[in-house]
Design a protein that fits this description.
By secondary structure, the protein is α+β, with helices and mostly antiparallel strands. It has helices at 8-15, 31-36, 84-89, 112-118, 133-145, 154-166, 174-185, 190-199, 202-206, 208-211, 228-241, 246-254, 273-276, 278-287, 292-309, 316-326, 332-347, 359-371, 376-380, 385-406; strands at 2-6, 23-27, 40-41, 48-50, 57-60, 62-66, 74-78, 99-100, 106-107, 120-121, 151-152.
Amino acid sequence: MQIFKVGGAVRDRLLGLPVTDIDWVVVGATADEMLAKGYRPVGADFPVFLHPKTGEEYALARTERKSGRGYGGFTFHASPDVTLEEDLIRRDLTINAMAEDDQQNLTDPYHGQRDLEARILRHVSPAFAEDPLRVLRVARFAARYAGLGFTVATETLELMRQLSESGELQALTAERSWKEISRALMEDQPQVFIQVLRDCGALKELMPEVDALFGVPQPEAHHPEIDSGIHTLSVLEQAALHQQPLTVRWACLLHDLGKGLTPEEEWPRHIAHEHTGLKLIKAVNERFKAPKDCQELALLVGQYHTHGHRALELKASTLLELLQSFDVYRRPQRFEEFVVACEMDARGRKGLEQRSYPQADYLRGAASVARGVAVQPLLEKGFKGPELGEALKRERLKALKAYKENR
């Protein structure tokens, strides 16, 4: 029995990055031997075991063969005669197909270290094209390591393009796709993830609504970058730079989908794109079964982001309606995420990344004023039920009018 550290732990150590998750592969062992040593089995499809003390995952060396469509369409074979090289060749990228023993002696049959030094993401073997999930994984790695200068190898991008055109991406489950998408959006440069997907034709297959934004112009006076797709990438970039949570990043990606529906004769204006985009945002939300908080914020930002930008001009009554729509009294955090999404949208414009956004503090102040209206005096006046709600609304409106006048 030989045990090797494999994959990301080896890659990140060689890059000088912190190692978080460690995967191990066991060569020359049987499942019974692992059980005898106290390892606990967890793999349903192939033999994976948890270490009796550390809880880390140890997988028996295995080979795989394509047997059906999609991510799950594989038959695995694990036995003591499977070599380390045979196990490593089934991995996605050369930089993930290295192993080291307990003395840090490197096993690198597919030149992963060379590609690390050249800053290239390259597939290990033609079998890469058998797993459609790898298109998303490579784009995610591109987003993670873009800051270090990594790019996708031309021949790997071509394989990704073939996979995108094959229809195999449609076999991915919503859960698997969302896991990769959500992880990619939380990388340092999530806009690179979207760009790589677009470069290989996968964006058109997975999110045609986002892909449709590229080539659609906006008024240059407001959007010096002009292209709606480029703007979306810039907004996502700003969200990452400002370390926003997943909910905000997802909303930033989807906020302008309505612009992809504007008839060409109306370009570069996009009247009512906030409303036309809602059905598209809903469709993308449902396609990937995004978590409820991501879905809700994306729809609200899509519908109201232009309200956010015009906050200083809004009538007190419109401002109150906006606050009510977000239920700022019970869900203050959701409104805060809306405010920062609007700010990222404003900053995601060429040359305007550093411009101040006074609307943010104005909206926060308005929410604070509305929340500050006390209910008790109204109860003491005898208001109850629907009448109490109306009275509370009147008092909040009065408070917001005063807030506007004093700004």
